[in-house]
Every structure is written in structure tokens, then in C-alpha cells.
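YM 10:42: ABC-type dipeptide/oligopeptide/nickel transport system, ATPase component sequence, as discussed on the call
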Amino acid sequence: MNTNAILEVRDLTTTVLRHGTERTVVEGVTFSLTRGRSLGIVGESGAGKSMLIRSILGVHPPGVTLRVTGSVTLDGHDMLALRGRERRRALATSVGMIHQDPLRSLNPTIRVGDQLTETLAFAGTATRRERSRRGIELMRSVGFRSAESESRRYPHELSGGQRQRIGIGAAALTEPALLIGDEPTTALDVTVQKRVLDLLHDTRLRTGSSMLLVTHDLGVAAERCDEIIVMRNGRIVEAGHTSEVIEAPQHPYTRSLLDSIPRLDGPRLRRLRTPQEGALS
Ligand SMILES: Nc1ncnc2c1ncn2[C@@H]1O[C@H](COP(=O)(O)OP(=O)(O)OP(=O)(O)O)[C@@H](O)[C@H]1O
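YM 10:58: structure's back
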């Protein structure tokens, strides 16, 4: 047992129950994430990454019942035992979630600055005036130079990259112990992707949060995470420190993912840089 774990998942198995049928989508998944560290969950579409995150958080897809067994300890909470309000409270204090497209989690009819301050109101951490000041300050901290005027825009008036900046700012607002990025840059151009990942890294340094980064892109996980697990068909096929997984992949599936990382400089580099080597700077 990892006594300094922010997240400990043991033998997690998730079965989708639907129209009288059962289908196992996550099987026997075990891993732990040490406080302050980052873990990439990598795998192709359908590997079970989203179902794993849903199972950890206890957030089931609409119209679908999930049977989740095993154990999940998140920031000291026994997540599979928590229900309703208790679970929502645990999530609100311990987890900041960044979705692929924050438009889905932003209210289209509310100005972005107000949405950020709403989150603060929900967390009950500040007066209205203080919230407004912090909202603008926060927009500045995630790269909005004209934060005062930009805070009055609606979500659809922002670019994908700007919206993701708001998404990161909102997720980090209460300085949660764990930030979870579910394909946070998949919808973005490569240059914007880099800036958003840099911001995520800086935010993590500022808040001291640990990070789970879900991505189909092994290259992104290799550059941004301390550790990696590779999933296929609901199971973990490879897990380890980033340098081990990249330099000496044990599973043929990991090798095929490595080989498919596009390179501008011809043949695949012998190895990718790891965070410890300054790839994040
Ligand atoms: N709402 C749902 N109802 C029933 N089965 C689902 C549902 N969502 C996903 N599944 C199934 O669960 C399995 C794992 O899917 P999951 O969405 O977790 O994969 P993923 O790795 O997150 O893929 P992607 O990157 O495409 O999101 C797949 O076989 C998928 O068909």
C-alpha cells in the first residue's frame, strides 16, 4: 500500500448492465498515484479510459448502470462506499476535472467571468466582490491579457484554446488535490495544444495538485507525465515510470503505440524526453 497516495485503485472491475445484458469494460485495474505526481492513462478509442475515470468518480453515463467492484481511495475517501451528497462533496473538494471540450461543461448563457465566480460561490469561499476580483485575476493567470473585458464574453465567443484555459482555471480554482484531464487537448491544434499543456503544468506547480492525464497520445503522456499506464480492452497491459515505458516497453501494443508517434525528423527518435529531463520547461 502506498501511504502517500492521492489515489489508490485496487482490482477495479466495471461491468455495463444494459437491457438485461452485461459487458465488462474495465477489468482488474490496479494502480496508485503518489501525491504531487502525474500519471498518464494511455490507450486507443474503446480501451476503457473514460469508463475507468467514471468508475473512480462514481459518475455513470446517462441511461447506463455500471457495476463497479474493487476499491478506490481518493484523497482518503472510500469512493465506492460514498453515495449522493457525500460523494459530490468529496469530488468538489478533492477533484478538478478538465474535459475535452469545456463548452460542454460551461453554461452557454453565462459570461465566462461569472462562471468562474459561480464556482467560488459554490465552494463558499468568498464574498461577491472578492469572487469578482478573483475571477479576473484567475483569467489573467491563465493567460488572458485583457481579463476584465474578456471575462464579459460568452463561451462561444472564445476560441477552443481560450475555452480550455478557462476550463483549466475553473478546475484549479479550489486548488483540488487531484486534477483530471480527460483528453484535454485532443480537439486543439498542435501549437495551441502545447500552450494548454504548459498551462496545465504551471497550474499544477502552483496548486501542488497531482494529475491524471487521459490521452490516446502516448507522446503527450511521455512528455507530461511521471508515470504511464497503457490500457487495452479494459485491462492494463503496461505500467511504469515514463522512462521505463518509453525506453523499454514490454508489451507489443505499447511498442506499436510508440511507433505510431509522428516525427518531423524522419525515423522515430530512440527515446522521448521525460519530465525530469526538462521536457516541460
Ligand atoms: N454509454 C455507454 N454505454 C455502453 N457502453 C459504453 C458506453 N460508453 C462506453 N462504452 C463501452 O465501454 C468500452 C470502453 O469505452 P471508453 O469510452 O471507456 O473507452 P475510451 O478508452 O475512453 O475511448 P475514447 O478515447 O474513444 O473515449 C467500449 O467498449 C465502449 O463501447
